[in-house]
Amino acid sequence: MTSAPTLTAAGTANVRRIRPEDAARMRALRLEMLADSPLAFLETVAEAAARPHAEYAARIAAVSRGSGSAQFVADPGGRFVGHAGGVAAPDEPGLTIVYAVYLTPAWRGSGLLDALVDQVAAWSRACGRPELMMEVVVGNDRAYRAYQRLGFVDTGVRVPHPRIPTLKELQMRRAA
Fold this sequence. Notes:
8 strands; Aminopeptidase; eight-stranded mixed beta sheet; alpha+beta; single chain; acyltransferase; Acyl_CoA_acyltransferase
């Protein structure tokens, strides 16, 4: 599943499924993601940095193929500037959980968010899962508005943040 390059005000980037040879560039983006938005992701910069490269490369190889989990990146050449992942929901056969959505600050508002989520949605549909769900930290209004613009609807469900129980996450859904 590849897409045509996305032309944005920030430049041109190809949004595509991650490949095994992307491990080092994805690791660099992951560390940036964690430093920029520590509440949005489920590990710390220190935890990610401590993971051996071989383990990280194996994880990237695993999500580069198959229907259980996939990651997509925005690649303008050089450093990756965006990421979105999808994983089959264990208890809902028709649902893909969207996770780890991120854009480098300079590329926010560029249209790449749409392209990344579109790739997750196309993959989800191809795998027979017609619905997407994501969780957003309550109070992250910028992300909430961006996901609403992409058609996600707040379900009213609130769950504890997996790492910081005093925070809540809200669930949003839309068709894939």
